[in-house]
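Task: encode each sequence below as structure tokens.

Item 1
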Amino acid sequence: MQHSPQNLVLSVFAFVLGAAVGSFLNVCIYRWPVDLSISRPRRSFCPQCKQPIPWHHNLPLLSWLALRGRCANCSAKIPFRYFAVELVTALLFLAIWERFPWQVAIAYWIFVSLLIIGTFIDFEHFIIPDRVTIGGTIAGIGCSIVVPALMQTNSRLAAGVRAALAAALGYVILWIVLEAGKIAFGRKRIEFETPTPFTWAKRDDDDAHFTVGTEESLWSEYFAREKDRLLLKCDQVRIDDREYGSLTLAFHYDRVNADGNVLMLDDLTHISGVTRELVIPREAMGRGDLKFLAAIGAFLGWRAVLFSLFAGSLLGSVIGLVTLVAGKPVWSAKLPFGPYLAFGALSWMFFGETVLHWYGMLLSP
């Protein structure tokens, strides 16, 4: 396929713009999960030495390569993720520009930017911020009204209604999966081969460190609902300065029942002992995934909701099985689902119609 000079210039512009946007996405990925403003400070800074990065050391793609992935001021290592985000964003911007009409392409640029932010934050923090999910849903409905072609119609009103209904469909489908999963698999029992030490230690914030054996996690990670309960069958327990023998500790997020005594965790600083069995509450997925699929529906429509859910579940299952077989079993391990939904959404954008046609040929050759 030959490109005219004008098309070549526009393609290069799309790539460069994507790299620049990717640099901004890195700011969002780093700052949003820790509640930092993306506008203050205005300039990027090194996470280690906190020194502002001058513009000539902050050129998308080029600076990371030129500095060999290190800060020019303190030589601290800059994660490869910064380069990867810029490169992926640049390539997606270019691919979208080459594949879709310019009005649709601009809307999809907004969409993939949200997908990238949500994906990398979910990988690192196991959350997807409302700025991405709720903001993405609102942006998707707005873009569909401005560019009705996103919903395969010429009517702005019809496009807005379709986008809103697709967003609702995405949310409701995953809500049903979430609730059904809670009923069927809402508790996980772990039996230890030998008596295993555990500790619960309060942090400075409204949370605590929970360590069982060699596995450490945050207390808040186990309690998605007010009624969730965590059980520890113990041989011996020490709660601050009180000693207990063999008993079962029944924890809620804010309290613990120990031998019939209900103790508020806000009044405690340290719990330790030896356990033989642990029962933890669990969810099929996080609620951020529900809103993430709603945002996908708002941009891509109801068929993309179903496709993204199927493709994401398939990929997530494969990776989960590979991880289970290849790695050491870890009972506290978590698998973020947002990145797999994003994979399904991108697959639909570029190959959805082709896959549906292929599948239809399989059903009726």
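Item 2
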Amino acid sequence: MPLQIAVDGPAGSGKSTAARRLARELGLTYLDTGAFYRCVALAVLRRGVDPANEAAVTTVSAGLNLSFLPGAEAEPDRVFCDGEDVSEAIRRPEISRIVSLVAAYPAVREKLTEQMRRLAAAHPVIMDGRDIGTHVLPEADIKIFLTASSRERARRRWRELETAGRAEGLTEENVLAEIEARDREDSSRAAAPLRQAEDARLIDATRLNPDEVAALIRAIVTEYRAGAKRPKYWYGLD
């Protein structure tokens, strides 16, 4: 079985940044699983479907053709839905507001989980999301749970939105409220809720920069390749 690395954590914790960097450095396939659910949310909005209508959302998700194209060097990864590049569209605030709702539906999660597992069985992967180590890849070789304070995550997300020109009148307090609401939704959903796997290594990135986070995960991978296949200690700043 190819190497599998699972990186879980709440919104804005830096999962995608760390996973992308490690994928390029270690020659792994990176899969942003959150983008799968964002594609569903985008399709739901575009088709005028009520996100609260589970049956309708499930029908939309079943008909989508999703694919990814890894970016070269510093280029971002591209996400395609039914042949259209939706990489920018799925990152807009209106998508963030409903993605946890559509991602909570069991039938939607199972359909997308099947696709993720097929990819992981075919290639060495690093996946990030909210239930990778607990549900999608429960037997992953390496599991990381990356977190940070909600205030720090809101600050980072606000800066990203401003830089990308997608703030649209939002304030940092608005972003904080959305992140805290999403944390509650992700942690309380019935289907594969956000939680730290028992054998995952915890990294608290509240006071760490992306280089430091990547260095910690790289050290864990090095240790695993040297023969340590289960956690011996935790990383954090307590």
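Check on item 2: Residues 49 and 56 are 7 Å apart (CA to CA). The longest strand covers residues 142-147.
End of task.
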